[in-house]
């Protein structure tokens, strides 16, 4: 079975999930960084290591291996929730979007990273197309995170183009909250799911009707025609939204900062505290707009070997 995901982290985790929990558990290396400690501190460290090892053992023993092999996993981390989507397949404009999103990183990092993601996506597109033409079944892992939901709609459009029947398509939607023993765990996207947890979500898999695939494929074409630069999931529906759609949450997080603050802390608060299903890269671009508009001022630049958002900012008034 072909496995489709929409982020690099999800692809790596899913590959590990294929064999995670298979066979006897064996201890792996667990490292911690600290300073020289007194004997009491060493006791605490040993206790922490034992707890971490026990947690890892339990995760392994409770896991449900997915099976398959890494060659079955195809990732399309194309950030389809942002940028122009008018092109069919994996168009060259998508490379421009990826380069813009990776721009906060040093140039010797962002350009090769964006180019490699694009190159692999083009290759994966052709491989998946060939395997589906040979009659294989495909399983698509998605969530309400805009890039993953957009990925689902985009891939449905490819399936329609390739005339793949619905009876060879399986969907697995990530539920935002799941009960794990005595606690409730939440994930915003598949990239946050640990290898030992993927198999537990198989109960959510479902087959779909041809009408469903046709419907979301048609919706993707509608979105393409709207030429918006941003998409969001609103009341469960993928919609075009204005590029300042998330700005109220970003402004709120900025208002909660000190007068002078680290930009990375602001971005972290937007993603963490407000639980928005957007990437840190998009938040960075919106903060850039606030700087251009004079609402924030750059105090210190980031070191050359670190992302741009490791700089100090200052409020110039009401954000």
TrEMBL record:
<dbReference type="Pfam" id="PF12395">
    <property type="entry name" value="DUF3658"/>
</dbReference>
<dbReference type="Pfam" id="PF08874">
    <property type="entry name" value="DUF1835"/>
</dbReference>
<feature type="domain" description="DUF1835">
    <location>
        <begin position="62"/>
        <end position="160"/>
    </location>
</feature>
<protein>
    <submittedName>
        <fullName>DUF1835 domain-containing protein</fullName>
    </submittedName>
</protein>
<dbReference type="InterPro" id="IPR014973">
    <property type="entry name" value="DUF1835"/>
</dbReference>
<dbReference type="InterPro" id="IPR022123">
    <property type="entry name" value="DUF3658"/>
</dbReference>
<feature type="domain" description="DUF3658">
    <location>
        <begin position="203"/>
        <end position="299"/>
    </location>
</feature>
